[in-house]
Amino acid sequence: MTRRRFLLPFALPLALCAFASPSTAQTTAGKAAAKPAAMKSALLDINTASKTDLMMLSGVDGASADRIINGRPFTKKHQLVSRKIVSHAVYDLIKDQIIAKQATK
Question: How many structural domains does the chain have?
Answer without folding.
Answer: 2
